[in-house]
Amino acid sequence: MKKQKHCFFKKHNIEHIDYKDTKLLMRFISSYGKIVSRKRSGVSAKYQRKLATAIKRARFMALIPYVDD
């Protein structure tokens, strides 16, 4: 039985995920440039939706690359 991961955002008391905080967002992007799943990251469903929206917005604003080289 695997140890349950706790939500990073709840643990650090982060309510709002800012798309301009690229350092935080890059923690949840794989080496191929994909958004890491909830299963791997341990983020709750509520924050996974907010995280995905923030990453997509940051990509659109060219703060984060779509694909990592």
Global Rg: 12 Å
Q: Which structural class matches the secondary elements?
A: mainly alpha
The dominant shape is globular
Largest β sheet strand count, sense and barrel closure: none
What ranges have pLDDT less than 50 throughout 5 or more consecutive residues? none
Count of helices? 4
- Overall pLDDT metric: 92
Strands, count: 0
Strand content: under 5%
Report helical residue fraction.
Answer: 40-55%
Distance between the termini: 36 Å
Element-level helix/strand string = HHHH
Oligomer: single chain
Q: Top keywords for this entry?
A:
69 residues; mainly alpha; 4 helices; globular
What does this structure look like?
The protein is mainly α. It has a domain at 38-69. It is built from 4 helices and no strands. The longest helix is centred in the C-terminal third of the chain and has 16 residues, at 45-60. The N and C termini lie far apart (36 Å).
Short description:
42% of the residues lie in helices and 0% in strands.
